[in-house]
Amino acid sequence: MNQKEPIIHVGILSATEIEFILNGTFTTSNGKTYSRKQKAEYRDGKVLFDGESVAEIIFESTDADSSFDLIDVVIGINFHWERKENQRFKGALKIIVEDEKITAINRIGVEDYLSSVISSEMNATASDELLKAHAVISRSWLLCPLQEPRTKNQDKTTDYKLPTTNYILKWYERDAHTHFDVCADDHCQRYQGITRASTVAVEKAIEATRGEVLWYEGEICDARYSKSCGGISETFENCWAPEHYPYLTKVIDNPTEPEGFELDLTVEANAEKWIRQSPEAFCNTTDKKVLEQVLNNYDQETTDFYRWKVENTQAEISELVKRRSGFDFGEIIDLIPVKRGESGRLIEMKIVGTKQTIIVGKELEIRKWLSNSHLYSSAFVVDKSDIVDGIPQHFTLTGAGWGHGVGLCQIGAAVMGEKGYPYNEILLHYFRGAELKKMY
Predict the structure, then answer these.
(1) Which of 13, 317, 399, 423 could form a disulfide with 312 if both were Cys (CB 3.0 to 4.6 A apart)?
(2) Is the peptide bond before 149 cis (omega within 30 degrees of 0)?
(3) Burial class (CB in 10 A: 0-12, 13-18, 19+), 397
(4) 122 in a structural domain
C-alpha cells in the first residue's frame, strides 16, 4: 500500500503553438529561469522555445505560491458548451511533442488536483457531505487505473464492427493517454486548475477525506459518475466493456421503490412507462439551490435534467444522422429499441432508413448519432408523427437523465446531502458492496 501522496500528470492543451504566462520564477532543467509571458511552438518534430529545439521542456516553480496560465484552453470538447478560456495552474508545466503538435501537461499532487476537480465538476459552494463524497469518488476514479498490478480495463476506445455490415457496436473507455495519466476535460474529469475559485469548504472536504478511496475486494473502485441517472442507475457493462463490477450495478435512486412501476426496465413496456412519467427519486428535483451545487454556469445552460424532450423534422434528423454517423440512411423511417439496460438506457438501437438499416450501440454512440454534440442520455422513447407515404415528417424523443447513469448520480447525491445524509452513506447508496479505505 502506497503511504505517500502520488504525483500525477494531467494533459491540458494540444496545439501547434501554446502561449503561457509564468506567474513567478520558474526554472528549466538547463538551469535557466523564466517568468511572465512565453510561447512554445511545434517545429520539425521538436518543441521550439526561446530559440532552442528540444524533445521536451519542464518549468519548475521556485515558490509554492507560483502558478502558470495557459491561454485559450478548450473546455467541453465536442459538447454543446465547448469554448475557450484562459486557465491558471499550480505545480510544474511540462511541454512535450505529441501527434505533430505540442502538449502542455501539468505535474501536480493528487490532493491539489482534487481541489480543482471538485470546483470544476460542481459548484464549490456545494454541501459539505456532497463535497466529501465527490472528493472520494474523484480520487478513486483517478487512482484506479494507476494501481499495480493493473487488472482493470485498459483505457481505450473499442470499436467492433460485427460480422454483419449493418451492426455497429462501439464504446468509449477512459481516453488512452500515452504521455500523461489523465486529460483535463469531460472525457476524463473536468480539471481547470485554480481557474474555478475553490473555497474553504472544498479544502476542508479534501483534507477530511485525504487519501480515502472506495475499495472493493482488494482494489480501488472504478468510481464512475454522471449528472443525473434519471431515477435508476445503469450497470457498467451496458455502457463500456463486457465486464461486471458488482459495485456498478442497478440502484434505485430513492429510499423506497416508486409505486406503480415494474422496475425491470430492460422490458420495453416498463421502460416506456418509466421514461414517460416522472417517478420519485433523489435526482428528480427542480430546486435551484440544489442544482447550483452541482452545475457550474455553463452547465446551467441546460434546464431539463430528469425528463426532457428533443424534436426533429425529417429533414433535420436525416441530415443529422448522416453527418454524425457517416452513413447515408436516406430518409429516416424508424428508430427502434433493440436492447435496453437496467436504467432504461438504449444499449442497441435500430435505425431504419429508405437506403439502409443499421443497428448501433452502445449508449454514447447512440447519443452521438442523434445530436450535434451528445444527446442528454440514451434513455428515451420515440414518437413519430405526420406520416406521409410511410415516412414520418416529425420525430419526438422523450428522455430521462443526463449522462451514462453509471455510479454516483451527482444531482441525486446533492439532494441527499441537503437531506442530511453523511458522505459515506451517499457513497454506499450508489456503490453497493464497496467500502471506504484510507490509502495514504
Answers:
(1) 317
(2) yes
(3) buried
(4) yes
Residue 68 belongs to a domain: yes
User: Cα separation of 302 and 305, whole Å?
Assistant: 7
pTM of the full predicted structure?
0.86
The mean pLDDT value of the chain amounts to 90
Q: Is the pLDDT of residue 157 over 60?
A: no
Predicted confidence (pLDDT) per residue in 181-222, tens digit: 988 877 677 788 887 667 888 889 999 999 999 999 999 999
Task: Decide if 65 is inside a domain.
Answer: yes
The residues pairing with 42 across neighbouring beta strands, listed in sequence order, are: 47
Query: pLDDT tens digit string along 301-320?
Result: 566 889 999 999 999 999 99
In degrees, rounded to 5, the angle at the alpha carbon of residue 241 between the alpha carbons of residues 237 and 246 is: 40
Yes or no: say if 14 and 101 are a contact pair by the CB < 8 Å rule.
Answer: yes
**SS3 track for the chain:** CCCCCCEEEEEEEEECEEEEEEEEEEECCCCCEEEEEEEEEEECCEEEECCEEECEEEEEECCCCCEEEEEEEEECCCCCCCEEEEEEECCEEEEEEECCEEEEEEEEEHHHHHHHHHHHHCCCCCCHHHHHHHHHHHHHHHHHHHCCCCCCCCCCEEEEECCCCCEEEEEECCCCCCCCCEECCCCCCCCCCCCCCCCHHHHHHHHHCCCEEEEECCEECCCCEECECCCECECHHHCCCCCCCCCCCCCECCCCCCCCCCCCCCCHHHHHHHHHCCCCCCCCCCCHHHHHHHCCCCHHHCCCCCEEEEEEEHHHHHHHHHHHHCCCCCCEEEEEEEEECCCCCEEEEEEEECCCEEEEECHHHHHHHCCCCCCCCCCEEEEEEEEECCEEEEEEEEEECECCCECEEHHHHHHHHHCCCCHHHHHHHHCCCCEEEECC
- Write out 168-198 in H/E/C secondary structure: EEEEECCCCCCCCCEECCCCCCCCCCCCCCC
Angle in degrees, 0-180, between the axes of helices 128-143 and 410-418, rounded to the nearest 10: 150
Question: Does 162 reside within a domain?
Answer: no
Residues spanned by the domain of 65: 7-151+178-183
Q: How much of the chain, in percent, has pLDDT values that exceed 90?
A: 75
Q: Provide the domain count of the chain.
A: 1
